[in-house]
Structures are given as structure tokens and as C-alpha cells.
Amino acid sequence: MSIFITGFVLKGNLSLYFNLTGLLIVIGGSLSAALISFRLQRLKIVFHVVRSSYAQRRVSETEIVHILINLAIKSRIEGILSLQEDENETSILFLRRGLGCLVDNYEPYQIRDILNTEMYFFKMRREDSERVLRTIGDFLPAFGIIGSVVGLISMLAGIGDTSVILRTVPVALTSTLYGLVLANFFFIPFASNLRERTNHELLLQKIILEGIIAIESELNPTILRTKLLSFLTPSERKDDLVPLAKIRERFNIRDKDTGQFIDLKG
Q1: Residue 250, domain member (yes or no)
Q2: Domain range holding 59?
Q3: Could you give the number of structural domains in the chain?
Q4: Is 86 a domain residue?
Q5: Segment holding 234, helix H or strand E
Q6: CA distance 100 to 110
Q7: What span, in angstroms and rounded, lies between the C-alpha atoms of 118 and 126?
């Protein structure tokens, strides 16, 4: 952002790029179009979603895996009903939903159906919010052009008056600038960030779904850990790989000539 603003400052004072008339046309027109296109309640939801996407800490896949493994161990030791305590304390709503199904003794197919439905409509709501942001992003350049046309009309009307031309030229030029900057520096990036976070949260929900089903079926925590690690990138589970020496010993891999274990790295 600093580099971006520096590009404006290098060729003059920032005050040169401020024009109230053009700003009112672009913001007022785009806001009016948004209110005509969408319900006010929908716009409020989009505002809260965007704000929370930047304000809330992002939970990593590794954290979710560790939480589920700990829950699986606790479930085997103390029983499924012991998860009621965690169901009330965890801040991850989807995980709480899954734990609630466990505590209420739902069948595995019922848990999967409920959580899959939750994931589906979560994705639908996020896609609606992203669509609103991209639509507003499309409005802004269009109203920037409208502001430019207004400035040009005023300029042509005072073609014989130099003072009128000097007052209207900034409106014609800055309006387009405002529309492009607001669209490409704010609303379109907001929409892209929302899609990226949605994909991340859907991955977390998929991990939670598989973990909840495994806990319900009393899967061994070690096996559960191996299964859930499949969701992580290789770099995140590098330390959990079985040593090559142990693999050679387990499968009795030896060199025919020397009788020594083969170095699999070679």
C-alpha cells in the first residue's frame, strides 16, 4: 500500500487527486445501485463477514487435527458423554455441532448427513456474499465513467470559459480513478479473500467431519491421527513420516551382495 501511494505522491501532491464531486458520484451511485440490487439485511451480512474475515485469527489444519486426536483419546478413556464438556467450551461452531451430535448419540449416517448439509449451506452463504462484493466491484468503474461524463458535459458547457474548464477537468479524470481504485483495491480483493477463507474453512470442516465419524466409531487414536494427517501438506507432516531405517528393517530390505540394509535414499 505504501508503494502504491508513493506512486501518486511522486508526481505531485495527494490533494490533486481529491475531488468531492467525483467521489460523491462514484460512492453515492454505487451504494444506490447496491441497495436497489440487494436487501439491506444481505449487505449488513456481507459487511460483518468481511470484517470478521480480517479480524478473526485463522485456525490451522494442524490445530484441528490435534484437537480431534485429543478428543478421540478422551472419548476412549472417559466415554462419549465426556465430550459434553468440550462441546460447551470450544469456539469452533462446526466442531460444536459435530460434538453435539456425538453427545446426543446420533448414528454415523445421520451425523454425516447433518454436517454435510451444514457445509453445503455454509458454502452457499459465502458464495452469495462473494457475489455481492463482486457486483459492487462491477458498479464502481461504471459510476466512475458516469462521473467522467458529468465532468465532460460541464467542461463542454463552459468551453469559452477557462475557469470552468479548470474546475470540471478534475471531475472528469478523478471520477474514473476513484471507481477503478475502489473496485480493484478493495471490493474485488475482499471477494477474493472471502473465497480463499471459505475454501480453507471448508477444508477444516471436512477434517472435523471425518474426525467426528471416527470418534463415534471408536477408531484407534493412532489410526485416526494417520488418517487426519492426510489432509495436511507434506511439509506440515514431515516429522510424522516413518524413518527409512525402520522401513528397511520392517520389510527386511537388504543388499544381495553385502547383506546390508539398502539405503532407500539412493
Answers
A1: no
A2: 2-232
A3: 1
A4: yes
A5: none
A6: 12
A7: 12
